[in-house]
Predict the structure.
Amino acid sequence: MDQKVMSKYEPVIGLEVHIQLLTNSKLFAGDANQFGDTPNTNISAITLAHPGTLPKLNQKALELAIIMGLACGSRISQYLIFDRKNYFYPDLPKGFQLTQDRTPICVGGEIEISTSHGNRRIELNRIHLEEDAGKSFHPPETPDSLVDFNRAGTPLIELVTEPVLHHAEEAYQLLTEIRKLVTFLGICDGNMEQGSLRCDCNVSVRPKGTKELGKKVEIKNMNSIRNVRRAIEGEIVRQVMLLEQAEEVYSETRSFDERTGGSSSMRTKEEVNDYRYFPEPDLSPVQISDQWLEQIKRSMPMLPAELKVQLQDKHAISSEDATLITDSIEAYDYFTQAVTDQNQAQHVLNWMRGPIRSYLKDQNISFGVLPLSPRQLGELAALTAGEVSFSVAAQKILPLLLEDSQRDPRQLAEDLGLLNHHDDQSLEPMVLQILEEFPDKVKAYRQGKKGLIGFFMGQLMRKTDSKIDPKIANELLSKHLN
Ligand code: ADP
Ligand code: MG
């Protein structure tokens, strides 16, 4: 679409993010909250809403919701009721969903994002607690539909932003930030493919300079953050095209198609249910005490931004390196497990910044599934702190370790004969010998051709089969050349 046409309109986007909470049991029942179990095995009579069963609120779920609210600077509601949201759907065994309509647990708050347009604080409308539905399957090539109720009753928080985003990129960054936040807080595993983190996007466009919001379209069924961005980009263009042709944008819910990047209509506003919300009569209102709230505040996990500052202080590392480490909980856990002694932190970082990052990128995987354990990287870093040169280790040891994660880095270095057998004392005579062999080069160096240090280094490497610590070698050469 023509950039000039696009620039006549301002997109407006609001997100509704569903976050499955990492509790052992469900929101109102004792059965396991576990992804991937045999279908219909975690389905107590309460989850299936058999007559006479009574829900009981899971305190842990409430605590995790409060933790998220505190992390976002939301106001925590201390008086809560749950509401029935009534609708019929095959994956909804009760015929209603328990949610919070009028008393969301968290009100307001904000999440800071950084994009190519600068830093922004994105205002939240609310975060409320609710239960998930079951899951329907439509196996291809059969007329049957199947339903698995294991997911029914799984605790969720739904985070609702204000309609304040204006670029698909901002939505992308916000979701990235939310995923980072919930995984560092330990309240959700952040897995979008398994549906632990799901996002519905509300998109409208309005003529630039106007205030009134356009008709919004809701898009569902994106299974990655990248697809959320694609869906929004596509929807903005679709709406602008309609308006340019003097056609109307209908308020509707659309389903994203991963293959085409487009979407198709699921239901229009006219077909929307009247949910007939009313307070759940089988649950008494919940009062959150000041003491409990204080206790949760005191035991709050550290946020990624706080951990970043802590890392910089503790290991004297740069802001970029600290950002790299706190980019994901997996990277953070990996780093902290690999660093077993203060002196080796820089060397662990050298590896994470260089060869490890390239490998992850090549394989398109994350630290969580890297076939090199933090313990192995720790040992590798200890080796390159003096005994084996970094480039030799990267070329010769690392590939073998990545092939077989059972191997021991030090043993490998020994077997390959890569351990430095040269310390200062054994190197010094060799340095002197090299200077004697190349008097012209020494003279040139002393007259200012400092780049020749590389030449001398090469000579020294050849004499020692590269089994030297480049740092020590460099110091020795400089000492005798200057
Ligand atoms: P609904 O009543 O349809 O559920 P809400 O007002 O509760 O709508 O808002 C749901 C989500 O849609 C929120 O994230 C909000 O920011 C977003 N939203 C509301 N109106 C618009 C709009 N006109 N354009 C884009 N997003 C919107
Ligand atoms: Mg709403």
In short: The chain is about 40% helix and 20% strand. The chain has a mean pLDDT of 92. Residues 441 and 452 are 7 Å apart (CA to CA). The radius of gyration is 29 Å.
